[in-house]
UniProtKB/TrEMBL annotation:
GO molecular function list: oxidoreductase activity
Protein name per Swiss-Prot or TrEMBL: SDR family NAD(P)-dependent oxidoreductase
Keywords attached to this entry: Oxidoreductase
Source organism of this protein record: Hymenobacter lapidiphilus
Upper taxonomic lineage: Bacteria, Pseudomonadati, Bacteroidota, Cytophagia, Cytophagales
InterPro entries given in the database record: NAD(P)-bd_dom_sf, SDR_fam
Similarity annotation: Belongs to the short-chain dehydrogenases/reductases (SDR) family.
Highest rank taxon of the organism: Bacteria
Keyword Oxidoreductase: yes
Length: 300
């Protein structure tokens, strides 16, 4: 891109519907706010409805004409994912944007109610299931997109199919990296599967280093340093918004900041390593994800 992209360049999107997971804070909140300002009806899909209501009030203060709905979604729970998808399909006949954003970063070891390692459950498997369950709505909506939020931290780990749930030993850093690599591999593979239809696109994005509440599990002495070198969440949301709204994307791209080492800056297309695009890894991850979640997708 020759010019620095900004969301203000995007025309209004009245009549569009978006679901943003984890919309109550951080880049999720900033993404929801920007979409609402562009006339999109935004479903704030959040685990904590009180925090979702607070975010809704805050967005309405900034944009009195915003069209917003809060709905409970705990992406770490397949039961919650199914309940959310059922409710959404019953009340909406279109879905223009699905922003798979909610996540946790480097918590102590824990397993979800479904028995999955918590970071894999929250960051990846829940979004895999959600996207599959909402795919009929997405494919029925011309020009719909799925934006899956990965992270530069995908470089921290490969996908350990022999110990996917970290039962043999838990590294917070490795588990986070694996979950975010899975998100990226998923976004690419989803585009391959959607390409034949051509109506729905899958795009991956990462925010660089942005100040969000993902640092809640960092040591107390480190957290205050974040404000010194992290870009604001509003800037971190720009790659996600570009992935969602830019007209020049065909699907299958990875969007991140254009600055040094993709740490900060304006959104642009970025590259990822060969393993993230390896179709054999993608096919294996897809099979395992369908088995674990019970959600089946399109066949290639």
């Amino acid at each position: 891109m020759d010019r620095k992209w900004n969301v203000e360049q995007v025309p209004a999107q009245p009549g569009s519907v978006a679901v943003v997971t984890g919309a109550n804070s951080g880049v999720g909140y900033e993404t929801a706010l920007a979409l609402a300002r562009h006339g999109v009806r935004v479903v704030l899909a959040c685990r904590n409805l009180e925090k979702a209501a607070a975010a809704r009030s805050k967005i309405l203060t900034a944009c009195a004409t915003a069209s917003l709905e809060t709905m409970r979604l705990d992406v770490s729970s397949l039961r919650s994912v199914r309940e959310f998808a059922t409710h959404l399909r019953a009340h909406y006949d279109q879905l223009n944007l699905l922003i798979n954003n909610a996540g946790i970063m480097m918590p102590p070891y824990a397993v979800s109610e479904d028995g999955f390692e918590s970071q894999l459950a929250t960051n990846y498997l829940g979004h895999f299931a959600l996207t599959g369950l909402l795919l009929p709505l997405l494919t029925a909506t011309p020009g719909a997109r799925v934006v899956t939020v990965s992270s530069l931290s995908y470089k921290w780990a490969g996908i350990d199919f022999d110990d996917l749930q970290a039962q043999r030993g838990y590294s917070r850093r490795k588990a986070y990296g694996q979950s975010k690599r899975a998100c990226l591999v998923f976004a690419y593979e989803l585009q391959r599967r959607l390409a034949a239809g051509g109506r729905t696109r899958s795009v991956a994005a990462h925010p660089g280093l942005a100040k969000t509440n993902l640092d809640q599990y960092f040591p107390a002495l480190i957290r205050p340093l974040g404000s010194l070198f992290l870009q604001p969440a509003s800037q971190g949301a720009l790659p996600i918004l570009y992935a969602a709204l830019a007209e020049d994307l065909k699907g299958g791209e990875f969007i991140g900041p254009d600055g040094f080492q993709q740490l900060r800056g304006h959104p642009t297309r970025v590259e990822s390593d060969d393993a993230s695009r390896d179709e054999r890894i993608a096919a294996r991850l897809w099979r395992v994800s369908e088995e674990l979640t019970g959600v089946r997708y399109l066949d290639r």
